[in-house]
Amino acid sequence: MIRNYENEKSYIIIFQIPEDEIKNILEDNGISKYMILNGQLGVVYASTNFDSSILTQIPEITWWEEASPMSTLMEITNNINQGIDIRTSSGVGAFYSPYANLTGSGILVAILDSGIDYLHPDFINEDGTSKIYSIWDQENENTNSESQGFTFGEIFTKEDINQAIIDNNPNLSVDRIGTGTITAGIICGNGTINQNYRGIAPGVELIVVKLREYHDTYHEGRINYMSSDFLAGIAYVLSVARQENKPLIINLSIGERSSSIYRLSYLNTFTELYQSGTVLVSGAGNEGNTDIHSSGNFQKTFQGQNSNLTDVIIQVGDDINLDIRINSLGSDKISAIVISPAGELSSIAEYSPDRIPYTGRFNLENTSYEIKYILPSILSDSLYIDIKLKDIRPGIWTIRLIPEYIINGNFNIYLPNKNLISANTRFIDADSTYTITAIGLLREVITVGAYNEKTNSMWIGSSKGPHGDNDIEPDIVASGVDIISTYINDNYNTATGTGISASIVSGALALIMEYVLSQTVIPQYTLYNEPLKTYLMVGATRKDIYEYPNISQGYGIFNFQNTINIISDNLS
């Protein structure tokens, strides 16, 4: 069944006027469904036939773009017999101090994913209450969230969840996929069913956002989330942390597509992310071996000079639609042509200062296209090109790139995350570097790759840096292969991916933040993102056979014991 919201489009807007004024302007332009997330950022929901040029014509909106798909950063592997327990894989189980009994008490951890099985015994305290502070189920149709500024879904309080536990009522909110429940168990499961599978920080409280699921965006049977709903979830968890006045770790086990350029993100509009006590942890991405990235280089050229074009070849499987993004650096300008398997050519899309897309149809394939230039803006100092192909047909598609004005010359081209598209859709000449998820490139984020404890080596799927002008990402790597955690229906299961690695680091950070707060002589600034990131990088294990930092392991392999010892030495 297609949910009503899957027939919508959503847009992210940035504005520079008071909230009440932008609300009036949106409504005056016939936009009735929207959320204002902070003093600069909003999201708009409209029908699929909405004319987005309306947003361009509103001068008070300084920037907008259509929301983009996001996907899980883990795969459920069903390999529990050969799985690794959480506390062993994180190194927390080996840590002991008679003076530091750390559980993560007093720390909030936010999970934005597929929801949580709140009746799983590992999320129920000894007194019968829940570890969960609240759940915002974005899919629930019994909307009660409007009073808090959210236009859909239902918010369940701790009291609601505790009553559901008493009543053994599983119907408040349901995790149908299991990845959110796995993430929660890594962070704070108490091992009620099996103490061997206890989580890292059983004393934390969880804020859970069950994101809306979208089906068949690119490929039949695949599920994705949307960046608009995700940003609304960020606004919600930050509001809870303000209300409770507690430190907050936001764990990202989902991600956007890979990117090579550092872009200011819509996340940067949330001032709390720059304040002490709020930390953002993201998986680096799972695209290290998926053929979703290709790259090339043009020689320096200027308008009017002859230059060589470049053809980038894509093998397309049985997808429904396909999006392609091209990144360039700095002031470089590139023209683009799409060539279908039958040899039809799209219009030549050339750089221009307006935002009018190039549109058309390949008649033999009956595939429509849209090519849009995203100009240098408040979000990025570089040009990028988005190509959307609707009702795409299998075969060999070509993206022909023609340099117009080249100073730097490097370009990178991306498909959606591999778990959203056909297994047979790939670049013929792929490149595993520059595959960090876009959010993982932000300076305000602790970005974590995945390490394979079984083979004592990198997990092959872990995304690699660098980004921009060879800046290093990820920051560190952590165990992320066949980790055993809580699963739906009171079970345990295994999962692999950088979403797992990020969850391990988030759980460990809860212990670290609790420890820092317990040292009353320490000023609050130590809970800023940068010092915590630095401690993780300095405390990481580095192998003699590699140079560090590097684009696979960053500054090394997460080492909880070393990290907390370094923090202790610096606090004395």
Written account of the structure:
The chain is of the alpha+beta class and 572 residues long. Helices cover 18% and strands 28% of the residues. It has nine helices and 30 strands. The strands form six sheets. Strands 7, 8, 9, 10, 13, 15, 26, 27 and 28 form a nine-stranded mixed sheet that branches. The protein has a six-stranded antiparallel sheet with strand order 16-24-18-22-21-20, with no helix packed on it. It has a four-stranded antiparallel sheet with strand order 2-3-1-4, with helices on both faces. The protein starts with 7 loop residues before the first strand and ends with a helix. The mean pLDDT is 91.
Shape verdict = globular
Residues in helix, %: 10-25%
Give the end-to-end Cα distance, rounded to a whole number of Å.
60 Å
The largest β sheet comes out as: 9 strands, mixed
Mean pLDDT: 91
Radius of gyration: 23 Å
Q: Are there runs of 5+ residues with pLDDT below 50, and where?
A: none
Structural class: alpha+beta
Tell me the strand percentage band. 25-35%
Number of strands: 30
The helix count comes to: 9
Reconstruct the topology from this structure.
Layout: E1 8-15, H1 19-28, E2 34-36, E3 41-47, H2 53-56, E4 61-66, E5 69-72, E6 75-76, H3 86-90, E7 108-113, E8 132-137, E9 154-157, H4 158-167, H5 179-188, E10 205-210, E11 214-215, E12 223-226, H6 227-244, E13 248-252, E14 254-255, E15 278-283, E16 293-297, E17 310-316, E18 321-328, E19 333-339, E20 358-362, E21 367-374, E22 384-390, E23 395-405, E24 410-414, E25 426-427, E26 445-452, E27 457-458, E28 476-479, E29 483-487, E30 491-496, H7 498-518, H8 529-539, H9 560-571
Parallel strand pairs: 7-10, 7-13, 8-10, 13-15, 15-26, 26-28
Antiparallel strand pairs: 1-3, 1-4, 2-3, 5-12, 5-14, 6-30, 8-9, 11-12, 16-24, 17-23, 17-25, 18-22, 18-24, 19-23, 20-21, 21-22, 26-27, 29-30
